[in-house]
Each structure stands twice: as C-alpha cells, then as structure tokens.
Design brief:
alpha+beta; 8 strands; TfpX/TfpZ-like; transmembrane helix; 259 residues
Length: 259
Amino acid sequence: MMKSLAQSQRMAQAVRASLLHVVCSLAVALLAGALVFGLWYPFPYSEMAGGRELFLLIVGVDVVCGPLLTLVIYSPHKPRSELVRDIGMVVLIQLVALGYGLWTVIEARPLFLVHEVDRFKVVAMPDIEREALATLPVSLRPTLFSKPRVVAIREPLDEQERDKVLFAALAGGRDYAERPEFYLPYEGESARKTLIKASPLTLFLERYPDQVDAAKAMALKRGGEEAQWFTLPVIARQDWVAVLDENGQLQGFLQGDGF
C-alpha cells in the first residue's frame, strides 16, 4: 500500500515536471520558429522552399522527446544534485538536437530569387558553390541574418562564356541562376526587363479567381492598382507567381501556375 502511494506521488510530481518541461520547450520552439520564418524562410518562401516541414519535424521530435524523458527519470526521492544532473543532461541533449536541426534548416535556406528571362527561380544554399558567393558585391552577398534577395542576371560576356554555361546546364550542372558571378542588383532597367515576358495580373486572376481577394489585399497594402500589375512564374517546390508593378518591382506572390 505504501509502495503504491509512493509510486502515485512520484508519478504526479513527474507529470508536473514533464508539463513544465513541455511549456519551456514550446517557448524555445516558438522563439526558434520566429527566427526561422521571420528571417530565413519568410512567407511564402516557407512554402516554396519546403522549410516549414523540415522545421516542424525537428521541433516536434525535440518538444516531445525532452518532456517524455523528464517523465521517465524524474523522482522526488533522488538527491537534488542527481536530479539536477539528470534533467540537465536531458536539456543539453535537447538543445544540441535543436541546434543541429536549426543548422540543417539554415544550410538549406533560400538565398536568392533570381530572374531568368521569363520566370523567377528560388535558389537555395545547396544550389550554389560557396566560393562563388565570395565574388558577389557586399550589397548582394548573403549573411547569416539576411533574408532572400531578389537579383537579376547579366548577359554572358562572349560566346565562350555562353557555351560554358550552356554545356554545363545540359550535363545537369549549374545554370545561370545558380551562378552568382552573373548576378546583378534587381533595380532600374534590370527590373523593368522582367515586364518583357510578364503577363497581366488580370489574366492570372481569371484563371485563379480564388486569388482575387489576396491580390486586392496586396494592392491595398502596397498602395497600387492590381489592374496595372503583372505576373511571372516562380520555379519552386509549389506553383507560385511573382506579382510585379509597372516598373518591374516585386509586390508579392500569389499561389498558382503562371505558365
């Protein structure tokens, strides 16, 4: 009887400790989520680059496993030093796992939205050679705390350079969008060139009437008129279009196939 009562008391205290651990773990996860989705994967890059699923998997496992371990190892009958050591080890394992998971998310993050003739392309960290990033101007060079940047692409300097990229791309290598040495700031004439192949936003909305409200909200937020805007497809994991104003400046994104 006494043994059963002691076990019930231990379990009750272990549950309370585990619930407290859940709350703390969720708070840390929320902070990590704010960093991931506010900086490295701002909407809709979280959809286009697939970071949301990876982050939720990592955090989900971390939030569940830590409190479960606390539930198993917690006992009010342990010496305080031993209890602190055991809980500390669990927290340390959690933090290491979360840190590794965040580093994985960072290493897969989208760096650039690149304009390629008749489309935009989301280019992530694994798509680019690290050494090539060092050749970029400081204004275009990504940092640990920078959001994805919009860039344009310059023309090849000569036929030799054009053929080099063409043959590499045909062999499954890197195309212009994955070559930072071709990047230009997305401004002025570089931005206006996007309109050459762009389609009126009104045509896109005729195909996707469910996006009309989102387009109106975007125009209201930007202080523009959606009837004067254009779209270009975005090459990513899902179908999206980039919405451009009459100067080619990016106003936002809408979901749908722009081709």
